[in-house]
Automatic annotation (TrEMBL), chain A:
Lineage top rank: taxon: Bacteria
Organism: Vreelandella neptunia
Residues covered by the Mechanosensitive ion channel MscS domain: 103-169
Cellular location(s): Cell inner membrane; Membrane
Keyword set includes Ubl conjugation: no
Record keywords, A-Z: Cell inner membrane, Cell membrane, Ion channel, Ion transport, Membrane, Transmembrane, Transmembrane helix, Transport
Name listed for the protein in its UniProt record: Small-conductance mechanosensitive channel
Known function: Mechanosensitive channel that participates in the regulation of osmotic pressure changes within the cell, opening in response to stretch forces in the membrane lipid bilayer, without the need for other proteins. Contributes to normal resistance to hypoosmotic shock. Forms an ion channel of 1.0 nanosiemens conductance with a slight preference for anions.
Alphabetical list of SUPFAM superfamilies matching this protein: Sm-like ribonucleoproteins (SSF50182)
Spans traversing the lipid bilayer: 16-35, 55-79
TrEMBL record, chain B:
Protein's name according to its UniProt entry: Uncharacterized protein
Taxonomic superkingdom: Bacteria
């Protein structure tokens, strides 16, 4: 009987007024989260440049703020917020989480950390465990990444704890792109370097306040050239690489520069190298 | 440049590029344009444009009267100011740059004519397309030469920049004698990045404040007589004064200052606004003229697509292009470029001038703002 009374004291008496308050808080929280998330996303997608990324960064932060405020209102209504009650409640919760919902709660906590540390924001281009794409939504438990193939991949936030997060533009508008050219060893390297630089300089997508670098690397089968440059908008990256590649090939073939004929094992090496350079 | 200092300022001043200053309220003008765009989207164009005088009560001026009130700009004072500045410069090449519709071609041509200096013919389109650099040899025949429009000397592709690179490298090193190059400010910004022309002095026309615009529009409208009073349909206030006595009062130039800020102080753009927006009352009893809301130009929406944006940027960098050349400098097919150009033409954002598609003067300000907001390379003016 004493035990029963002790646990009963943990929770406040929930009368009809408290129920109505809880209902109103719950409803307001849901409505506020939906409105703020959709509103900010809608606004950000209509913006360009740095403003777009700043608004996107507000999306998870706003949701976190609303949730914390709602919890701060709800908890004192349900339980008497004394030290003993809190320890009892947290102990019980910890036990449940430890056994049953470890990964789920780990993702939720990582979601809170991601809203503060900002390893990724909507609009960022990230690579998490080989999944590359644009962050579309940072949810409570997962981050939604849209790949270039138009797949939407939900990655749990808990990857934050033990996996590297590659962020290509880190909340900004500068995203480096790489266009590769594999050339036969017999060519005038100085001319090729200059020609590839001109290819980048005359691209309609080029961002001029970032450097253009042409990298040449000698291989047993020939020379691997890379143009490293930045497009005006990160979303133009594939169009930019295509433009550099198509025009680069045209210029090189018009000058009689031949592509390298790679043996199969070298071709695999080159493909791996190109993938790792993203 | 405050109003007190600009009251004595000459109308035509040629200054070094880094001394160029936009008029007062230019930043505010950009915010106003964004706000206006948002309010037009929210409440519609009619409600967003509050007018004291309804446009339906006004009519366009007959062509003859308009030609008297707003004759074409006489660029000879600017050419004289340029000549004055050039006297003190010893560099082998001097650039004279202005934004689109702001007269660098006319100014350099007039300067060259007055000083009996040859304007070297532009290379042909096929010479540019093939990357031919033979046309540079034409300059060897002249000790002094002028290029009124450098934007006609290149195309933005790998072949199209070879000639202008060769030309500028030789000219800047002094191997082609002495020359003055007129250049669109967007072309200048692009070539600065692609070739590097920072070493050569660059001159431009100083911006005009509202008071200077008032003086200029009064002067061209009077022809020695009296200019008619002009009122604003937006505020109902007088914009241009009908007598010298009124003009000498501490005149409120808000409306023309607003126009100056909107045009970033460029007289060529302001002239187009003035000419397009003057109206007269429909009823014969009323006197004076009206200036309809000067800034209600062909607006570009914030969600303008990438293809349209790239077309606009290409047109600005080349100082206008024909359809064929436009297709050559854009990274998509000719028909896509043509479709985008047609859509922009329907909106009144581009128009054809001497066979080249250009940004219309009344759309220039919003196009520049759009490109700047999307991180594209913009001109220094």
């Amino acid at each position: 009987m004493d035990e029963q009374q002790k646990y009963a004291r943990l929770f406040n008496d929930i009368d009809s007024q408290a129920l109505i308050t809880l209902g109103v808080v719950l409803l307001s929280t849901i409505v506020l989260i939906i409105v703020s998330q959709r509103g900010l996303n809608w606004l950000a997608t209509r913006m360009h440049g740095q403003v777009r990324f700043r608004i996107f960064a507000l999306v998870p932060l706003t949701r976190l703020f609303i949730l914390i405020t709602a919890l701060a209102i709800v908890v004192p209504i349900i339980i008497e917020p004394s030290l003993r009650n809190m320890v009892t409640l947290l102990g019980a919760l910890g036990l449940a989480i430890g056994f049953a919902m470890k990964d789920y709660v780990s993702s939720l906590i990582a979601g809170v950390v991601s809203a503060i540390e900002l390893p990724y924001r909507p609009g960022d281009w990230v690579n998490i465990e080989g999944t590359y794409g644009e962050v579309k939504h940072v949810g409570l438990r997962t981050v939604d990444i849209q790949t270039p193939d138009d797949d939407l991949v939900a990655v749990p936030h808990l990857k934050l704890w033990d996996h590297a997060i590659y962020n290509a533009n880190n909340g900004g508008t500068s995203l480096q792109c790489v266009a590769s050219f594999y050339l036969h060893p017999e060519h005038e390297a100085g001319w090729v370097r200059k020609a590839l630089r001109d290819v980048a300089l005359t691209s309609a997508y080029l961002k001029f306040d970032k450097p253009i670098i042409v990298v040449a690397e000698e291989k047993p089968w020939g020379t691997h050239y890379r143009i490293r440059a930045y497009p005006v908008d990160p979303r133009q990256q594939f169009l930019f690489i295509t433009d550099l590649t198509v025009r680069g090939k045209t210029v090189l073939s018009a000058a009689g520069v031949q592509s390298a004929m790679l043996p199969p094992d070298a071709a695999l090496d080159a493909r791996n190298a190109a993938e790792s350079s993203y | 440049m405050g109003e007190s200092s600009s009251a004595e300022a000459p109308l035509w001043a040629v200054v070094e590029l880094d001394q160029f200053q936009t008029p007062e309220q230019t930043q505010a003008s950009q915010w106003r344009r964004s706000l206006r765009s948002a309010s037009t989207w929210l409440v519609g164009k009619q409600a967003a444009e509050q007018q004291v005088k309804e446009e339906s009560e006004l009519r366009a001026l007959p062509d003859v009267r308009l030609a008297h009130l707003v004759p074409p700009i006489d660029w000879s004072p600017a050419a004289k100011a340029l000549a004055q500045q050039l006297k003190s410069l010893e560099a082998p090449v001097t650039f004279f740059i202005t934004p689109p519709h702001n007269g660098h071609v006319s100014v350099v041509k007039q300067w060259a004519e007055e000083h009996h200096i040859a304007c070297v013919p532009t290379p042909t389109l096929s010479e540019l397309a093939e990357g031919d650099t033979q046309w540079v040899e034409r300059f060897v025949n002249y000790r002094e030469w002028a290029v009124p429009a450098l934007e006609r000397y290149f195309l933005r592709h790998t072949q199209g920049i070879q000639g202008v690179r060769e030309f500028l490298e030789r000219a800047l090193s002094g191997r082609l004698g002495k020359g003055v190059i007129g250049c669109d400010s967007w072309t200048y910004a692009y070539l600065q990045q692609v070739i590097g022309i920072d070493g050569a002095p660059a001159l431009t026309l100083q911006s005009m404040e509202g008071e200077q615009l008032s003086r200029y529009f009064s002067a061209i409208a009077t022809h020695g007589g009296q200019s008619p009073p002009v009122y604003s349909t937006r505020t109902g206030n007088q914009v241009l004064f009908d007598s010298e006595a009124n003009r000498n009062e501490k005149a409120p130039y808000q409306e023309l200052q607003r126009l100056a800020a909107h045009c970033r102080g460029h007289i060529g753009l302001a002239w187009h606004y003035w000419r397009e927006r003057l109206r007269e009352p429909s009823s014969s009893g009323e006197v004076g003229l009206w200036l309809v809301d000067a800034l209600a130009e062909a607006e570009l929406s914030a969600d303008t697509g990438d293809i349209a944006t790239l077309v606009l940027h290409a047109l600005l960098i080349h100082g206008g292009l024909d359809d064929h050349s436009l297709g050559e400098v854009l990274p998509f097919s000719h028909h896509e470029a043509l479709n985008a150009r047609l859509a922009l033409q329907r909106k009144g954002v581009v128009s054809s001038y001497e066979g080249r598609w250009q940004i219309t003067p009344l759309s220039y300000a919003s196009v520049r703002q759009l490109l700047e907001s999307r991180n594209y390379l913009v001109d220094p003016l």
